[in-house]
């Protein structure tokens, strides 16, 4: 809307202050600059990626057990975060968890986003000499061992002869640095599919009692299952 400006007939635009959009704080502008255009402001809070420093006055109860939910876990990186049910228990309301603190009989201990867990809390000093908090002795609710790989395998893999059928063979080699190796299948098996004599094995398929193999292996007798990948190849 314009208002009259005198006998000349010209008009002058008047800015109404109540229609002017408020200027957001500088920190909001900074965060918005790094967000996709479609992402609403309410989603500016990102998933946790690194552990937070432990407050100097944090009182640690080494024997206490807590419950919570896994909010993020990266299987191939070997870590994730748990949100305690008790709000304000730890800084940021999320706690770093490393695969080595997961109590599991799975060949490759891991967690799934959304699963409930039970845990203790410990202090950890990292390579930068910063003290952080970590979840320790992570179990299923009630203290049971965590076992989820069979469920994940059923959903994502096609097995030769069935999920629980075991074959025997010999490790040709396994490289902990390369995180892979090859297994030679024993003779005498009648297979319904063209499975090769030598089969690749990835680190995630090596069952070392919940640990990771750290030394070179060869000529070691093993047993294993065989699965067919989406590309049509066969692996241990």
Automatic annotation (TrEMBL):
<feature type="domain" description="CSD">
    <location>
        <begin position="65"/>
        <end position="140"/>
    </location>
</feature>
<dbReference type="InterPro" id="IPR002059">
    <property type="entry name" value="CSP_DNA-bd"/>
</dbReference>
<dbReference type="InterPro" id="IPR012340">
    <property type="entry name" value="NA-bd_OB-fold"/>
</dbReference>
<dbReference type="Pfam" id="PF00313">
    <property type="entry name" value="CSD"/>
</dbReference>
<protein>
    <recommendedName>
        <fullName>CSD domain-containing protein</fullName>
    </recommendedName>
</protein>
<feature type="region of interest" description="Disordered">
    <location>
        <begin position="1"/>
        <end position="33"/>
    </location>
</feature>
<dbReference type="GO" id="GO:0003676">
    <property type="term" value="F:nucleic acid binding"/>
</dbReference>
């Amino acid at each position: 809307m314009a208002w009259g400006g005198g006998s000349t007939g010209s008009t002058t635009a008047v800015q109404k202050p109540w229609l002017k959009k408020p200027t957001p704080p500088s920190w909001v502008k900074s965060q918005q600059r790094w967000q996709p255009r479609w992402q609403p402001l309410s989603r500016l809070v990102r998933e946790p990626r690194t552990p937070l420093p432990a407050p100097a006055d944090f009182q640690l109860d080494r024997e206490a057990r807590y419950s919570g939910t896994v909010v993020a876990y990266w299987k191939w990186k070997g870590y994730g975060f748990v949100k305690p049910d008790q709000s304000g228990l730890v800084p940021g309301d999320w706690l770093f968890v490393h695969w080595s603190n997961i109590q599991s009989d799975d060949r490759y201990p891991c967690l799934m986003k959304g699963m409930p867990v039970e845990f203790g809390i410990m202090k950890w000093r990292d390579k930068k000499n910063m003290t952080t908090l970590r979840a320790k002795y992570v179990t299923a609710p009630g203290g049971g061992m965590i076992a989820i790989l069979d469920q994940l395998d059923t959903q994502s893999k096609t097995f030769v002869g069935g999920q629980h059928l075991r074959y025997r063979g010999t490790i040709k080699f396994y490289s902990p640095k390369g995180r892979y190796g090859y297994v030679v299948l024993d003779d005498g098996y009648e297979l319904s599919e063209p499975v090769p004599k030598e089969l690749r094995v990835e680190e995630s398929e090596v069952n070392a009692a919940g640990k990771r193999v750290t030394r070179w292996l060869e000529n070691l007798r093993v047993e294993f299952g065989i699965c067919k990948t989406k590309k049509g190849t066969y692996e241990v």
